[in-house]
Every structure is written in structure tokens, then in C-alpha cells.
Amino acid sequence: MTDETKIIEVLQQVAGKSIQPSPDESLFESGLLDSFSLTDLVSALEREYGIRIPDSDLSPRKFDTVARIQAYVAGRR
Q: What global pTM score does this model have?
């Protein structure tokens, strides 16, 4: 399973619905995520990838698209 697929699965869990965002689609502008669901997403990514995401990184810009999330996770490993 690719990282992109894993991230989309995590996003589906957080959003509570089946979604297929494109890699560069803004998850916040499309309404798939908001500031409240960002913390849920970060917690789910930490569990899925066994990484620690510091509070200082809780910026919607870092998690705005699947591609940005993928790059961020790759940098935290």
C-alpha cells in the first residue's frame, strides 16, 4: 500500500465518509477538513506512522493537501 493510499484511508476515517481527494486538492477549501478535524487527523497520522507531530507543526498549511501530508510524513520518519 502506498503512502498516498494510507493517507487517504486516514482522511476517510477522520472525515467519516468515503472520499477520494486528488493529491493537490485543498482539504480545507473543499470542506473535508477544518481546524477541529486537524487535531484528529494529526492523531491518526501519529498512530498510523508511529511518528510524533509537535504542536508547533499544527498548521493547516502543512496538512492542506494529500501531497503535503505525504511530504510531511516522509520528513518525520
A: 0.91
